[in-house]
Amino acid sequence: MEAFGKPGIPPTWASSDKDRVGTALGTSRLWFTLGHGILNEVFWPSVGRPQIRDLGFLVAKEGFWREVKRVARYRLLEEDPASPLVEVVHEGEGYRLHLAFVPDPRRDALLIGFRLEGEGFRLYPLLAPHLGGSGWGNTAWVEEGALLAQKGEEALALVGPFARGSAGYVGFSDGWQDFAKHGAMTWTFSRAEDGNVALMGEVREAKGTLALAFAPTPEGAKTLAKSALAEGLEAVRARVQALWREALEGLDLEGPDPELQALARRSFLVLKAHQDRTYPGALVASLSVPWGNTRDDPGGYHLVWTRDAVEAAFAHLALGQEEEARTALAYLAATQAEDGHWRQNFFPDGRPYWEGIQLDEAALPVLLAAALKERGPVGEATRAMVRRAAGFLAREGPVSPQDRWEENPGLSPFTLAATVAALSAASLYGFLEGEEAEYALSLADCWNARVEEWTYVEGTALDLAHGTRGHYVRLAPPGPLGLRGRVEVRNRLGVSLEPAALVGLEFLALVRLGLRPPDDPRVLDSLRLADALLRVETPTGVFYHRYPEDGYGEHEDGRPFDGTGKGRAWPLLTGERGMAAFLLGEDPLPYLRSMAGGTGRGGLIPEQVWDAEPIPERGLFPGKPTGSAQPLLWAHAEYLKLYLAWREGKAPPERLGRVAARYLGGGGRPRVRHFRREVPLEALASGERLLVEARRPFVLHLGFDGWKGVRDVESEPLPFGLHGALLDLEGHETLEFTLYYPEEGRWEGRDYQVRRR
Asked: In Å, what is the CA distance from 478 to each residue of 410, 483, 520?
């Protein structure tokens, strides 16, 4: 009989509050998450494709029933923080439910061992298919011993010792509604077509095994589930243990602090669990959807962000796992756009999701390529990738359409540091040759010398209040006003701030990448100001906001972020602050302990922690995870890099020897200043020449010392598709000029002047 209530209520995902993430390794293409003691999203056949919302459990006997997720009295038992194998023990009024989750290394299947203790109790698994990455359009039905669902060419089967089953529409005829209305399972609908559906089964045994499997057809899914059951839970568990022992072989994460060591091992698990096997090298940002229990977001964080992926690859390098980093780099070479950039984010198969452009996401893969070249040879595909990326940075920089938080255009110390390091690395490590190498290095030297001009302020109200001379800003907006302009605060309606008020930790990249010494007075003043304005003390440790007036986070009353909110504190920024302490010769241990203290129930590092008074009814407690992504791959990568730096005393893996030697060793002084309309130049030092450049051919109409000796100079081709005219001011005090674009038949419409210092 067909269920009623079609198509069901609007679907959502599970909470992003995960207890554990895992995968079997082997040839299996299945990844799973646990949250609130039950199975949450399961991903198949790649880490970007969630196929269920959750698989929960009801326990019931005559006149009594409970959903164990809502009771929320459970313990996690793990054999090793670095293993995906975990047992969950739920306890309630007269019952105890043991659940063991074991992914099959050979099949796209997950085994769930169960044992229900308690007189008269029966177990009722409740499954919410979200095939194809959405709760809409699913069809569910019941066969003897199996609960099945399908959407297009994606299907699942939950097989086990079921006495009966029912398929329904969520919010109307699903199994939970049945219990809520009748206190027992009374419905046995055989089918629910094309909607937001759910399946429930009554298990006839108190102890046994369920198998959840995925395939292009329901028959295939059922076959995989049955064959996994035939092999048996313990045999499959032994295979998982063997594969993870092999993955851990040679990995040294020993340390004097057991809690920090456990988090380091768990961070390794997180790195491995976010790697794709259908598309090797793809690393998604999180196997979760931030505030997922309030939305049906098709992307969530199970997408590849180049920035997050490279941060994770550097963590693998810090662990000595060069092969993992090279696999990630090969994947990045395959997903690079022809013009040299990477999309803002994309599915593991390479399909773009958001289309924003961030220069740091084009720069960071170059740093990874150079770091790998320090350790051994790289192939021609990597050389071609670096050349394309360097060309994109050279053409499009230094102003980025988006900063690293994907919010604003402008000039950010983080993005500038990554861009300068990438351009110089492309030249210094031999990825570029001849004129291209010379040009890229000249551009890097010039932009590096102008970082303070673009992003450093002095004598502001904040500096006067905190006793600092000046500080780096998070971002200077594009346009002629620059540091005198205003920056719109995203996620806050109608709020804008002066750049000087936008304090952030972006400047720490200048130190980490070896462009500024850690004891530079400008760095120390900025650090002092950031500690005063962004640092949050919580019962679990210290954490940092991204910037003042941030709006990305829960509202004041704890309501989920819905496009607006209030920014919360970020553990990954605690890691960045800890690395700065390490590079200054200070002890980073308090920052490591803070990151460990801010983990969730299962020891995973979240994107954000709550930094206000507790709101227990919403599960929000100071210093503990919010409804943002958990775990966040970037945060675990940051923890691992800081943990290994603390334990081994080594510089972060992002710091390239030749780049740091150039800029910390007194080299890198620009001989040519690159003039672009986005970043006009006011003065040249003695011995410096001026290169006026544009992205298309132009005629330079110029004069000296007040438009004397007016003449025209045609631009010449430069590397990477640019065009320029090289000038010398020797013997003159000022140069005046404007540009004419013959292909368009128009003038620049503005006169410029450059003086000699």
From this structure: 5, 9, 26
As a whole number of angstroms, the distance between CA 547 and CA 331 comes to: 33
On the question of pLDDT at 1 being above 90, the answer is no
Confidence at 719, pLDDT banded by 50, 70, 90: very high
**Predicted confidence (pLDDT) per residue in 137-176, tens digit:** 999 999 988 999 999 999 999 999 999 999 999 999 999 9
Quick one: tokens of 283? 């690393």
Degrees, nearest 5: CA angle 388-368-324: 120
Beta pairing partners, 735: 704, 754
The pLDDT of residue 531: 98
- Predicted confidence at residue 355, as pLDDT, reads 92
Mean pLDDT in residue range 614-619: 95
Strands 20-23 and 470-472: unpaired
Cα 289 from chain centroid (whole Å) = 12
Burial string for 136-148 (b: 16+ CB within 10 Å, else e) reads: bbbbbbbeebbbb
Q: Write down the pLDDT at residue 757.
A: 85
pLDDT band at 23 (very low <50, low <70, confident <90, very high): very high
SS3 content of the chain, % helix, strand, coil (to 5): 30, 25, 40
How far apart (Å, rounded) are the C-alpha atoms in residues 527 and 586? 14
Alpha-carbon distance of 606 to 635, in angstroms, equals 7
DSSP secondary structure letter of residue 310: H
**Cβ–Cβ contacts within 10 Å for residue 354, how many?**
13
Both structure tokens of 100: 């063991």
Which backbone phi and psi does 32 adopt, to 5 degrees? -130, 160
Planar angle of CA 282, 287, 291, nearest 5 degrees:
135
At residue 746, the 3 state secondary structure works out as strand
Distances (CA, A) of 232 to 104, 238, 514, 598: 10, 10, 54, 38
Q: Is 550 helix (H, G, I), strand (E, B) or coil?
A: coil
Whether residue 610 is predicted with pLDDT greater than 90 in this model: the reply is yes
